[in-house]
What we know:
This protein has helices at about 5-10, 35, 40-50, 80-85, 90-105; strands at about 15-20, 25-30, 55-60, 65-70. The chain is α+β, with helices and mostly antiparallel strands. The chain has a single domain (about 5-105), classed as 2-Layer Sandwich (Gyrase A, domain 2). It has a four-stranded antiparallel sheet with strand order 1-2-4-3, covered by helices on one side. α1 packs across α3.
Amino acid sequence: xxxYVSRVLKLRKWVxxxxxxxxxxxxxxxxxxxxxxxxxxxxxxEQSLQSVPAFKxxxxxxxxxxxxIEYDPIAIEPNWIESLFSDxxxxxxxxxxxxxxxxxxxxxx
Length: 109
């Protein structure tokens, strides 16, 4: 598993989808992330997001406690994004593999 994608998957435990339209998803920090922020440096989060080819663009906004991610809704099905940030581990793993297969045909998250 790619180390940065692994970080994104860890990060998803601390965020929730606040708004999602095909091609754009806004994540908000969950309560409790403040205690975990020492483990996540801004640079680590940025490297994690950059390492996922499915994400075309992203913006971190520490003032609002949100992350805006843009992706190609034709290449990546919006329900995969919903699953990627869900609380269900099997859904997350399945979405990760589907996205990886679509992006690079390797199936390796």
